[in-house]
Amino acid sequence: MAWIQHNLTLPAKSRGFHLITHDLLEAVPELAAIETGLLHVFIQHTSASLTVNENADPDVPADLETSFSAIAPEDFPYRHTVEGPDDMPAHVKAAMLGSSVTIPVSHGRLCLGTWQGVYLCEHRRHAGRRNLVLTLSGESA
User: Fold this and answer.
1) pTM above 0.85, yes or no
2) pLDDT at 17
3) d(Cα 44, Cα 47) in Å, to the nearest integer?
4) Which of 58, 63, 69, 114 is most buried (CB neighbours < 10 A)?
């Protein structure tokens, strides 16, 4: 069984849901040699998150952003406000979506469904770069 770990830094992105599947594949070229395994992706931040969702229709990420902004609005009476009005809603959204995703690997490929992709969910208006830890484990072909 092989264990491989890479760090990936994504450039700053605007608030919203950003497809990063291709970035993950580029960062872990060893994935092609894995017959059966798992790719675990962890984000090292508390105001952004990760999710797997539809990767085909551009309305989906826009609707997700609109929905989460309605669930955790900036005008809610939060106590934690020292980092700006978008900070605490970002923490709430990240808590709902989570800090990691784990994707099965089979025959050197991620076992995502036809319409699935991995998204960086950026919850801040003016966030910086985001750091991810990618851990691949599995049996070689």
Assistant:
1) yes
2) 98
3) 9
4) 69
Q: Homologous superfamily of 2-140 in CATH?
A: YjbQ-like (2.60.120.460)
For helices 59-71 and 87-97, the axis angle rounded to 10 degrees is 110
- With tokens 């599995």, the residue in question is 138
pLDDT score of 41 more than 80: yes
Residue with tokens 């009476």: 77
18 token code pair: 């950003």
Token reading at 117: 């992709």
- The reported pLDDT for the residue numbered 79 is 96
Residue closest to 13 by CA, chosen among 124, 110, 141, 135? 124
Q: What distance, in Å, lies between the first and last C-alpha atoms of the chain?
A: 11
Instruction: Write the pLDDT tens digit of every residue in 50-86.
Output: 999 999 999 999 999 999 999 999 999 999 999 999 9
Cα separations in angstroms, 16 against 7, 19, 59, 122, 141: 22, 10, 12, 5, 37
Pairing of strands 2-10, 130-140: antiparallel
* CA gap 54, 118 in Å, rounded: 9
